[in-house]
Amino acid sequence: PGAPLDEVVKSGGPLAGDELAQVARGLAEALEAIHECGVVHRDVKPGNVLLVDGEPVLIDFGIAHIADDVRLTSTGLVMGTPGYLSPEIVDGAEVSEATDWWGWAATVAYAALGHPPFGTGPMDVVLSRVSRGQFDLVGMDPNLAPLIAAALDPDPARRPSTDEVLLGVEA
Q: What is the pTM of this model?
């Protein structure tokens, strides 16, 4: 029984300070928990985060899968919301925990800025920005922006680990 993060931000504006830290931390802890179970969510976005008394609750595991599960996909088939699909999902590459950290960063950026970090427009334009790592974090808290930028790296191998994200959020 909570409001989706995207609706909270649309109606009340971007989050800041302790409110933003609570969302970033709580969502990071939720991802850590599902990753410990061997699950990758694959669709972390503001509409899949409910706020219940300020605490984020991650929902909609419809396209989640076990990390070692093999899935067959059709070329050109994109499931998800442009701007919140990681580059590896867009490219049809292997997903991992780094996929969720990318979605975490895009979601936290939206919460902090009040707009999607990869902008809006036609799907192919937004997906192109995602693949190139062309995001806009102007106006984001300078203490949080480096962590978000690192997690939005198009190369999953260069994204921060779970421990680095959790330490970065606490800092």
A: 0.90
